[in-house]
Design goal:
With 238 residues, this protein is mainly alpha-helical. The protein has a domain at 21-72. It contains 12 helices and 3 strands; from the N terminus they run ββαααβααααααααα.
């Protein structure tokens, strides 16, 4: 087959649709067990979410009625998704949370929602916020966050990878064994073994502090992203 017979390459999606040309039909999303109605532009949903694209096109009931039920989704989480649809920003401020684990758990929940709604851009934004919060807060969550994450996401998820990397760089596992062994043993065994190996390697570079420039989330934030729709990552490391 010649080049002329090849299908055209898929064009990368823009981060935000053009409001002048997108579909401004209002879709009502009924969220939570009380079916709280939340109005959202159909064009935004179709542009960003594979789940809504499947629900709102074709002959499905949702496509005709312009109503989608998400009874198992928290209202606050979905409102964060709507906020992101309009602003491309995640509305989580670590400074507002007294307990470090609360903002971390909230971001895990938002990442899970991104999986459910098949929204790659939202997941990537959550990951960026997760990494930024850990840096800005300058405090790691307690180790219960590992099991909280694994109860909701696969071990292979990018967010779990970020969690392992941050603990490996900033948490002293040896000291923790001496002062709070219970917190160490609460971490899944394979994760702990990987963190131990990374910590051992990093300790060898401690004298010249090269480990700071090798921090994965600083060196190449894109490694924690998904880019399955042909989008180009603006955070790609050089």
């Amino acid at each position: 087959m010649g080049d002329a017979d090849q299908p055209p390459a898929e064009k990368p999606k823009l981060e935000t649709p053009n409001f002048r040309t997108m579909d401004l039909t209002i879709v009502t999303v009924k969220v939570g067990p009380e079916a709280k109605p939340i109005a959202v532009y159909q064009g935004l949903l179709l542009h960003h979410s594979g789940y809504f694209e499947a629900s709102l096109t074709g002959e499905f009931r949702e496509a005709v009625a312009k109503e989608v039920d998400l009874a198992d989704v928290e209202e606050s989480d979905f409102l964060s998704f709507v906020h992101w649809l309009h602003t491309q920003a995640i509305d989580v401020d670590p400074a507002e949370e007294v307990h470090t684990n609360r903002y971390a758990e909230r971001l895990v929940d938002l990442y899970v929602l991104g999986d459910r709604l098949e929204c790659e851009g939202f997941r990537n934004a959550v990951i960026d916020t997760f990494n930024a919060c850990l840096e800005v807060r300058d405090e790691l969550p307690d180790t219960a966050i590992f099991q909280y994450t694994l109860d909701r996401l696969l071990e292979s998820s990018k967010l779990y990878r970020s969690l392992i990397d941050h603990f490996s760089y900033y948490w002293n596992v040896y000291e923790a064994f001496e002062t709070d062994a219970e917190s160490v043993t609460s971490i899944p065994a394979l994760t702990l073994a990987e963190m131990w190996a990374m910590t051992s390697k990093l300790s060898q570079d401690l004298e010249d502090r090269t480990y700071m420039t090798q921090a994965p989330w600083l060196d190449d934030p894109c490694r924690y992203h998904d880019h399955t729709n042909g989008s180009v990552c603006l955070k790609k490391g050089s």
